Amino acid sequence: MTTSTRDRLASLRQALGDRLVPLAWANLVANIGIAVTGGAVRLTDSGLGCPTWPKCTDSSYLPHGALGVHGAIEFGNRMLTYVLVVIAVACWVAARERAAEHPLAVRLATIVALGIPGQAVVGGITVLTDLNPWIVSIHLLLSMALVGVCVLLLDHLRGPTRASAPLPLRRAGIALFAVGWVVLYLGTVVTGSGPHSGDLESKRTGLDPQVMSHVHAWAVYALVALTLAVLWRARRLGLLTLYRAARLLLVVELLQGTIGFWQYLTDLPELLVGFHMLGAGTTSAAITWVLLATRPRRA
To answer: Burial of 160 by CB count in 10 Å (0-12 exposed, 13-18 middle, 19+ buried)?
Structure first.
């Protein structure tokens, strides 16, 4: 490698290091976005548009005309994974450049960078199992977990210092986070029992979608109650960051609840289901922020 090439690479790494926070935001947005586009694949019955993995067909990595629009949609979603990889690797390089200031950022960026190809493998397993709804559930929940890691990375990068909330509030934050994940999981169970399987021939879980919708709704009620409790207590104690995080979560919950009831009463139109999946990603981000806001943060 010539000196000029080394100098250009060093300049590129330094430029990325200067943009660590924007790249961390891009990581978050991209990981929420891939969950939404994955939902679009399912909602258009394109889950098996490419019937095998890692190739699109047995003989080619590219879709051919016989696969039609479903093949193009599924292949397009697979290609978006490479966009995520580019963003994640750029964020990882930026974190390495700022490792002296933010050592934890390197580990978090590494988790995201390795999690994306790991998600691609799980996505391949969903195709090879003909969109088994339980595997699809794991696929979505792993995306939600990566969203949480992205929020943790952003929280680590954001100053200033933050004192710990009182013990009861910390426990309430843990309970809220746990119930939030129960809500996310039950949402995937409702989806797995409903009509949008991703392919007309794919099997469902066999559970009653109406019953599971009510179970999911009761978990949401519990989450809203915990959010209101944390919001009220954070305001009383003057914990501004926690108050803002809980307020944002409450807004997300109200929007999600409105969309959820609307889609339930209108037989699950695809567009509303897509917005509901966007809400799932923002819910994962918001419950993570509430949990972190109860914990101390050093400069």
So the answer is: exposed
> Degrees (nearest 5) of the Cα angle 44, 125, 89?
90
Q: Give the C-alpha separation, 250 to 227, whole Å.
A: 6
Which candidate, 103, 99, 91, 100, places its Cα nearest to that of 21?
Answer: 91
Direct distance between the N- and C-terminal alpha carbons of the chain, in angstroms, rounded to an integer: 38
Domain locations in the chain as residue ranges: 8-158, 162-299
Say how far apart CA 145 and CA 147 lie, in whole Å. Answer: 5
Q: What's the CATH fold of domain 162-299?
A: Four Helix Bundle (Hemerythrin (Met), subunit A) (1.20.120)
Classified as helix, coil or strand, 78 is helix
Tokens read off for 207: 């559970």
For 248, residues 6+ apart whose C-beta sits below 8 A from its C-beta are 286, 289
CA distances to 84, 137, 143 from 120, in Å: 11, 14, 10
Q: What is the per-residue DSSP string for 260-277?
A: HHHHHHTT--HHHHHHHH
From first to last of the 299 residues of the chain, give the pLDDT tens digit. Answer: 566 667 677 777 777 778 899 999 999 999 999 888 887 777 776 767 777 777 777 777 777 666 667 777 787 778 888 899 999 999 999 999 988 888 899 999 999 999 998 888 888 888 888 888 888 889 899 999 999 999 999 999 886 678 889 999 999 999 999 999 999 999 988 888 766 555 556 677 778 888 888 899 999 999 999 999 999 999 999 999 999 999 999 999 999 989 888 877 787 777 787 888 899 999 999 999 999 999 987 65
Residues 288, 146 contacting (CB under 8 angstroms): no
What is the pTM (predicted TM-score) of this model?
Answer: 0.90
CB 170 within 8 A of CB 100: no
Give the closest residue to 31 by CA, choosing from 187, 153, 135, 128.
Answer: 153
